[in-house]
Amino acid sequence: MGERVEISAKESIQEEGEVMDTPERSKNNQIATSISKFEDSPVFNFLNSLSPIKPVKPIHITQTINPLSFATLPSVFTSPHVGSLRESRFLRRHQLSDPSKPEFSSDDRSTVDTNKVNVESTKQSDEQQENLNQRVSDGEVVGGPSYDCSKLVVESAEDLSYDFNSPNSGLRPSRGLKAEHVADYACNTSTLVPFVQDACQRGSYGSEVNIEGNMHVLCVVGPDEQVGEGGEPEHLSTQPGDGGEMTEIADSHDIIAGPPLDNPAEKMEYEHLSGLYRGMRRRCLVFEMAGGRRKHMDENSGSDSSALLQSDGNTSSNDQKLLMRTGNDSSRRVLPGIGLHLNALATTPKDYKIVNPDSSATGRLLIGPSSSVNFHPSPTGQELLNNILPVAPSDREIDSIDNALLPVEDACQASGYMANEEMNQNSPKKKRRRVEQAGEGEACKRCNCKKSKCLKLYCECFAAGVYCVEPCACIDCFNKPIHEDTVLATRKQIESRNPLAFAPKVIRGPDSLSETGDDSSKTPASARHKRGCNCKKSGCLKKYCECYQGGVGCSINCRCEGCKNAFGRKDGSGVIGTEVEVEDDETDMPEKSMLDRSFQKTATGNDPEQNNDSAPPATPLRAGRQSSVQLPFSSKKKPPRSSLPSTGSSSSGFYAGQGFGKPRFLPPPPKFDKHFETIREDEMPEFLQEGSPVSGIKSSSPNGKRVSPPHGAVGTSPGLRSSRKLILQSIPSFPSLTQNQ
DNA sequence: GAGTTTGAAACT
DNA sequence: CAGTTTCAAACTC
């Protein structure tokens, strides 16, 4: 086959125009070779056998590419939505019934899809290859001809190159794929995996998973996702020419709709599949879903899906496992610069979850990386897997969990779970619960405002920089796209009053502080609420306390009274990593008891990060996960609202400088962002240098009164002995309304 | 699910 | 800037 492939590739090149006789040639050859190999692979054959679309061998094809295939690409960047996003920097959540979204015109898509099918039904031509090469060289993903989004979800050129050059890489130019979208790793990945699997099973959908430390999933999901159908997901559908929405799509489910299937049976299947996702909330990973669906896959395991996955070649080594992120990184789903509110991101505890430890031959693992908090310099994916696997509940377990807390407090997961539930049941009650959980994530916030019109910081959605969505029970809500102007104006006003009003409330320090030897530095205690709390009665042991809620200890900035914050008291005691005094009866607060247990566990343990070769660090969060114990914030009620993926923020470029896959294991701070990182003073932007710890100290009013939030950098308490400073790293990338306007 | 508590946000 | 009011989440029953 190799020889033939080689020949084919050459033929293609030569016959199609001799345009390759350049340095590009080798590259093209490689690509062509990869493609050819793939086409000749059993998997491909299998796919072909299932697909109504008959592949055409790479021969003398004077293919005419429908203009639509490429013409729309640029639109991605000109989409009104994109502009809107940029302008508002306000996260647009899925708008279930917002009529202001003309973008999703199924008609257009249909047209495109049709064309696409035509294109795909033939071997890609020179033109395509050229285009492909061109785009690849540009660091652009080669996507299906008509998908604008391909540009939005661009991976690095390196990644692409890797993909293409990899012999077994599933990545290939349009062939057989309805479209190829490089979804941004994270959430996309997690979201897509199920699809990939399904797609693989169906054989008619192209799907590709490339794992390379980072996970790239190219998934082509079949036919149209009906817009507006089921009352939901316009964002699930892909619409050529709508870059903005694509952004959203990527941002949300990352589900890429492919062209319509000609085969009715397949179409039905597809519809079924897509229907499953219709109920999913935007930006919520379909983690559970994956699990749920996995059951099916398990049953069919070993067959196609696994085969296909394996065929991805790149997934070798540590990558035999797909690392999937649970929504934490929704951030990743968002194009850099497109802001998600930090707070939204904040809570996102990073969650790693094994989606399918044993179901597939490859042992797919979904990991939620990222996150804002870094912990150790990137363990390899394998390591992560190893660490995670033992803890992760099986899918079945997850599936069986209904009211029980999800083992992993990932809003996204929850969402996914919800979605899964949705698929299986429609009881109002369930739905309600689902909604609640769905709202958890950063991206999935939901509010219940009655008087603020969701235009004040009281509103979690607003505060998080996201629009209110269906799950919200708000009244007179103005926090909707249709009131964008109002929202922006209000936001601006609030920011004028307090520039950091929309900034994450919790400044999370790095574990690096541990180098100081300070026990407290080994824990989330290194993180602090930027302004501190002012609790009087809760003892900082309830979520009324923003510090506690954020999973951080109280600091000198707090004006709290009788602080008993389990994450660290104002006076420095009770910090995680040190013995935590459990003064209150544990029965007082279920959450607390859990938390305390976790803490105690931690206390007895060693440095979490130091010992986690085989086990995750024993931070409360981590410990909780490890033992499948409820997280401190897990409650029968709403899961930590922010445990979501804070993704958002992460996506908002927060992690721009962070390596993907850097897992963060943090406490559960459900509500706030952890997108903070410490940077050395010398690395600190000048404008932030003012806000050194000293400034932080100064920010504390002598009389203990609340002071204006420190601007720029948020100082940590002096107690945090470190040469490093906690910086609100998100600031630069935070979508300030005052910018670019 | 309604009512209460709490503390942040907003207002004066 | 301090005090007060408003607000909505968290919590309790």
TrEMBL record:
Chief place of localization: nucleus
Ranges of Basic and acidic residues composition bias in the record: 1-13, 100-111, 671-682
Biased amino acid composition, Low complexity: 641-652
Residues in CRC domain copies: 443-568
Keyword list, A-Z: Nucleus
Biased segments, Polar residues type: 112-122, 300-320, 601-614, 730-741
A Pfam cross-reference name: TCR
GO molecular function: DNA-binding transcription factor activity
Family: Belongs to the lin-54 family.
Listed name of the protein: Protein tesmin/TSO1-like CXC 2
Organism: Sesamum alatum
